Amino acid sequence: MLNMIFAWVLVIQIFFFSFCFFFPPIHGSLQSTDTKHDKGLHLMSRISLPPSPAPEAVSPSYNPTTIFNVRSYGAIGDGVTDDTQAFKLAWDTACQTEDSEVLVPKGHTFMIQSTIFTGPCKPGLKMQIDGTLMPPDGPDSWPRNNSKRQWLVFYRINEMSMQGTGVIDGRGEKWWNLPCKPHKGFTGTTQPGPCDSPVAIRFFMSSNLSVIGLKVKNSPQFHFRFDNCQNVYIESLNIKTPALSPNTDGIHIENTNNVKLYNSVISNGDDCVSIGAGCYNVEIRNITCGPSHGISIGSLGIRNSRACVSNITVKDSIIKHSDNGVRIKTWQGGSGSVSRVTFQNIHMDTVRNPILLDQYYCLTKKCPNQTSAVHISDILYSKIKGTYDVRSPPMHFACSDSMPCTNLTLSEVELLPAQGKFVSNPICWSAYGTVQTLTIPPVFCLLGGTPEMLPQNGKERC
């Protein structure tokens, strides 16, 4: 019995020794260092565990745009058929839908009568113009009961964008040829007759607007006009009209604030940009302007009116082959002020009046002398360089006797004649200011100090 027990013990020892020899202990990467989480987990199961499942994708939260194609509402787009009602129907439907788009598809030309697109609308409204828009061809084709002062009007709109790759063609030639237009009369004078001409696109009492990427040409009068608007963003426009087309300002703003105008090309028969009364916080940058009448503040103070303009910046731009460069123009008899204006880093190429400040603006040369005037102060001209047309002096500061211009500052101004070597002297009248650096030509005519006559009452101040 004892021998049998001994034999079983021997067998067990041999088996244990063989097991240890052929299956040594496992070390290294198969052993977890995190005993807290691996406790009780079988060794081989840790090797074959699948990777943790990826977290579920979270869908981005956005509202898809609802598209209202004008052709789906009956627009033909053959350039002849009147598509006005189809546009109105598409607009009225989109206006009541949040994040909507009125689509003007490419490959079609849509003729639209004078129309007012009215708000208020739901936020996020877009007008995507990829085709061509145009009005009736000239005043004789204009319906008798429709206003001849405006074509497309957007009224009481908040948060709207107008953009696209299309063209807005104002078909303005027949309007420019009206006898009343200044360039058509005898020796440049006007002749009697109807003279109303439509602004192509007007925004009125609207806010949070953006106009991007459009091509606009041949407007009968102003191409864009913004009245009583705020928070306006304009970028990458191309506006083109012949140099002799009268009153075809590229962009005009009036009683409008917080405006940004960037990266656009404008050539026309009047001001590339004109800034009227009641405007402040306006930034204009990287504009190529010309042929044109330049970039202007004014005219202000017409018919003894009060005008307030402030915080205007024009910079990093080019003005070429134009009647004026940067200009401030006011009528005699007005009141109010223009202040805190910066013209900076502007290149002039053959410009007739590169720097012009005129408080005696008059279209007929028969304006009566008046004592009151819009007060002009705190104007900076910095890094204005290039060439000027020798028919006019490169700098002209004509200020009111009773309300002189004050705190004009010139820095790094270099203007040379486009032809010849004779450099004209600047002209100054009742203009007070300083020259911070040497200018070409030298400016010795600015008055130093402070004039005795300055705005005193509330009517003259803003």
From TrEMBL:
It is found in: Secreted, Cell wall. The keyword Secreted applies. InterPro entries: Glyco_hydro_28, PbH1, Pectin_lyas_fold, Pectin_lyase_fold/virulence. Keywords: Cell wall, Cell wall biogenesis/degradation, Glycosidase, Hydrolase, Secreted. The keyword Secreted applies. Transmembrane segments: none annotated. The active site is at 293. One of its GO terms (molecular function) is polygalacturonase activity. GO terms for biological process: carbohydrate metabolic process; cell wall organization. Its main location: secreted. Belongs to the glycosyl hydrolase 28 family. PANTHER family: PTHR31375. This is Polygalacturonase. It comes from Prunus persica.
